[in-house]
Amino acid sequence: MELTMAGALNAALRDSMREDDSVVVYGEDVGKLGGVFRISDGLQAEMGVDRCFDTPVAESGIVGTAIGMALYGMRPVVEMQFDGFSYPALDQVISHVAKYRSRTRGRVGLPLVIRIPYGGGIGAVEHHSESPEAYYAHTAGLTVVSPGTTADAYALLRASIAYDDPVIFLEPKRRYWLKEDLDLPVTAPPIGKAVVRREGTAATVIAYGPMVTTALEAATRAADESGIGLEVVDVRTLSPLDIDTLVSSATKTGRALVVHEAARFAGYGAEIAAEVNERAFGYLAAPVLRVTGWDVPYPSAKIESHFLPDADRILDAVARLLEY
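User: That's the sequence. What structure does it adopt?
Assistant: Structure tokens below.
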């Protein structure tokens, strides 16, 4: 059947709740309303108000209560309504969520998922289009996941809920309406494994989350317009990073490009570029390049198209790689 990414996420939550009574879903407006993006639509009606419910506008409290629930044997799935709203909970995430396994010398994990709709492309106001992945990926003790396809949205969310340690689940909100034909339940590579979405030999384009679709669009145009075969690798799990798959692709093509929405300076792409450079330097015919957002606060909706990387910017960087 044809499903949007939003529908796949909803199905993943529903299936997980049906199979495991310890799974609870909560956050701001996720109950009766079904969430701003309707990801939890219908869950309260089916599962009841004890398993899918609304909270006050208090992100630190949402995550703090999830810690307690996880310690007492539940599997909470909480939503930060928008990316920029997740920052008030950073103290809980960094100081407690990320550290419990280490703090207890491996004896106690926190099986909880923090869902965060992130990224731009929807014409939103301030604080509604952030890309906070570098904060979370930098925090040791967290698993950070971002699906780039509808199938992965279902499979990775199911896997995250079943995971015995905390997962930051970054949902590319501009792709909520991305459709695929799926037969549920979907099987996919596990958390921690990158995937080659398109084979190629001229250069490797590394992307994740919202930029996977953009990278594939650029690869299609490169093939159709110039006969250039770009290989597209979907990172899928930002931490832990499957560097072996990325290095294997870069070694094969001899050129690599990293794409993400977040600002360039100290962005997540810098870590990928450094890892690929360190491990594949002798095979590279050009430096690893980055196509990113600009080093400014996220702009207003009227000019966000100038901030977000698009296929044209990717193809310009590919041309620089090939000319090097």
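The radius of gyration is 19 Å.
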